[in-house]
Amino acid sequence: MASFAEATAIRALDSHTYLARFPEEWCIGSVPHGGYVTSCFLSATALHFSTTHAARDQPHTITLHLTFLRRTTVGPARFSIRDVKLGRRTSTVHVSLTESDDAEPSVVGYLTQSNLRTEEGISLRTEWSLHPPPFPLASATMQALRQGKDENWTLMTPRHANFRKASLRTEKYVPRKGQLGPGMADEWICLKDGGRFTQESLGFVADQFPQVVEIYPGTDPPPPPPPSSASPSDSASGGGKEKLKPNWYPTILLNLDVKKALPVEGVEWLFVRVQAKKIQDGRMDLEVVVLDEEGDLVAVSNHVCLILSADRNMARSGEAKQGGEGGSKL
Questions:
Q1: Which of 101, 142, 180, 203 counts the most CB atoms within 10 A of its CB?
Q2: What 8-state DSSP symbol labels residue 262?
Q3: Which helix (H) or strand (E) element contains residue 68?
């Protein structure tokens, strides 16, 4: 089973073409997880700027904009990069993902590179903070949190685990007393295998959170028991029994604004808040805020997602074409 680092490994075919392989265990249903695919875009671009444009010393993606045109599939993937603007402080590239030689692109995007460790310019403090403030960590260490000893946070039991295989690669710790409001979810997240989140992991982290739609059946759940005594049907984010059948929440647009460089060796833990402003007619927006252990802002992401039956995910692409969708991911 591929680790995150192995699953996002990229190799160069030539100076502007890069290859990856999407494994089944990083899928939602039959479709590679959108955040995982986003991290592959980040990894391909990082390799491009560490080889083809190494002299520019622009190792960090500071902005990303992806449009998901068609469903991606398990297997080989090709990233084709076109240099749009190469500058002294920032450079922008267009990246397209295809999965066979004659295929139309599945995902396209623009990424802007810079060097977050050498940036200079005006810096001002603002009054921004998360509102409402998240529950504090009661444990002295993150290890105590992982051992289930924190009074405010508890391990979330994954929902629909067989369908959301990629989600099983992480551990998510959510408020014991339930989320702070409808359409909002907070979590502390780490990789289950002990891996560390690097700069390229931020695409995945920005798309890994309790599904806000599924919080509604248990907006005000009773405090869940500690993980050691929780039954498989318990869920801190849903207040007990699952009341919804599996949904698929395909992303059709994802933006990422990276605010700081993580340590080169990566970090074990990140905090994530996701919030929807409007959920209507099977479509929703999501704002995702990522903080480090010190509460410093790492990244902000915005998504546009659809809310579909899981059956749509599992349908073969040929069936989608027969349905008049031209092979689109939706």
A1: 203
A2: P
A3: strand 60-68
Q: How far is CA 171 from CA 216, 257, 269, 271, in A?
A: 21, 24, 10, 12
Interatomic CA distance for residues 169 and 193, integer angstroms: 7
Element (H, E) at 317: helix 317-322
**Letter for the amino acid at 115?**
N
Query: 41, 258 in Cβ contact below 8 A?
Result: no
Q: What digits encode the pLDDT tens for the residues 49-78?
A: 999 999 999 999 999 999 999 999 999 999
Q: What percent of the chain has pLDDT over 70?
A: 87
pTM here is: 0.88
**How far is the C-alpha of 26 from the C-alpha of 3, rounded, in Å?**
9
Q: How far apart are CA 95 and CA 69, in angstroms?
A: 13
CA–chain centroid gap for 5, Å, is 15
- How many angstroms separate the CA atoms of 313 and 166, rounded? 14
Residue among 302, 315, 218, 199 nearest 259 (CA): 199
Tokens of 206: 């920005």
111 and 42 in contact (C-beta within 8 Å)? Answer: yes
Angle at 45 between CA 43 and CA 49, to 5 degrees: 115
